[in-house]
Design goal:
With 208 residues, this protein is mainly alpha-helical. The protein is built from 5 helices and no strands. Pfam families: Bap31, Bap31_Bap29_C.
Amino acid sequence: MTIYYSLTFMLLAAEMVTFCFLVFPLPHNVRKKVFGFLSESPIVAKLAYGLKISFIFVAILFADALQRMFRVTAESELAKQNGMAHTGNAQAENSFAARKFYSQRNTYLTGFTLFLSLVLTRTFYLILDLIHTQEEYAKLKETTTGKPGSKSSNPDEVAELKAKIAELSKKDRDFETLKKQAAQQAAEFDRLSTKYNEVTGANSNKRD
């Protein structure tokens, strides 16, 4: 195995170990600290940038290995059609089989390395989103239950809510008072109107 395919195999092994670490069940606080460090550390960011460059080279190796595999397969099929497989030349058959095996091995090696890199990236961000969702859920749960130290038990917010409740109660009382005053004024108006009609009717009768 050449040096670049050996490095690709080491990268694949590192990806497998990293994937096992990501999916390993850890306590929430430990996982939060670890993923917080991985997502915010500048050293990890530089390392990730270097890995992106290396994956570009792996993609080039994958394209080359895929092309070699197709070419060796085509040559093998052509040799079979020409009857080389029945000539008893074991050395030629072994040569074609070895070339086919190495081309397929290199294709699978580079392909799985690229595929696992995508899986690792997606898994990392899914777990990071899960941690953030759990944090938001914990804050929302504390807010709804009103535990000590939560946002709902803040003295300033409690005082503000009490002030709003008192203001609404005052407006309700003012509205009821206004209704009573309007009813009293309407009754007084009806009384004065009736009295005025009675007086006016009496005067009219006297003039008649």
